[in-house]
Specification:
Length: 380
Amino acid sequence: MASFSLFNSTDKTTRPAEGRPIVELRGVNKAYKTAAGEYPVLKGIDLEMNAGEFVSIIGKSGSGKTTLLNMITGIDRPCAGEVWVNDTALHHMSEGQLARWRGRNLGIVFQFFQLLPMLSVYENLLLAMDFVGKIPYGQRKQRAMHLLDLVGLAEHAYKLPAALSGGQQQRVAIARALANDPPVLIADEPTGNLDSKTAESVFELFDQLAAQGKTIIIVTHDSGLAKRTQRTALIADGEIANEYVARALPVLSGEQLMRASRVAVPQTFEPGAMIFQQGSECRDFYVVAKGKVEITLQRKNASDVVVAELGPGQYFGEMQLLYGKGRSASARANENAPVEVYKLDYPSLSEIVSESDELRESLAEVASQRASHNRAVLGD
């Protein structure tokens, strides 16, 4: 990935939008000063989110979730690293610039709603638009009613928030967050104070918004809800787990996932490049991050045959990890585009496998299926 310093612009707060993630954190560190010295909260966070994704951030209390969210919203600043949101460098902006930018680019949904109690539901939405000034004045009333209709509360437009249930107030808060048509919607524990049925309806609304192109980021302690988002970022002790390792090895505990993430080394292969060859003794396990990896088998007196094509979140290299044999197949990058993988050394991963019967069984099952498929392809 190109360094940000390569962007040719005299304005350090903006960059070209084409091909960039809508949220991008690079090497973000955050520490707070205490009587005992500096207390690190975020440690070298690297994180990307693309437009239209529905992403959840999960972690235990004190893990750094809220601080991470405050980096993305510009409420707090990193001690080191870069924070880009919607192609704007938040780490270079003044407080005044951030306030104006935030109103136009982010919609924030709070756990406790924070609606103004003396204004009607409708007036709460109008005030949000009046404050930012992004929506033309003549369109604000119509937009407020449209948003209330979107969240199923148009008939309650002129009621005070106290007249609504908790779930209804949360839906109003979502409508207010959408008032200025922000590209990114952020919600901090949005279902934490709701019953399961109401939480489900709020979650379905987020699904609909993501389908319409909004980028949705939620912080939650509910791992069940998090699993239903398109992506989940696990944070523990100020570090982010590798999302591709998490997708490849979902049976790992949070602590095991963090250990695996720490030893995952990124590698890039050019189109068509060989990653390893059949029969070799390479002692590494691989998880695909970007692009496609082709798994090929040698055939007697014939060309190699492609037996599988693996994409992001899939792994290879489990045969030798489990059984100590030479590589049973070759792996190469697809010829159409570069491939990015994460390499995990066998000693580190073997230690985790030895602790988890569930992981060993999962790897063995995949290995067995792949071996059967390979035999069938070769006609054995």
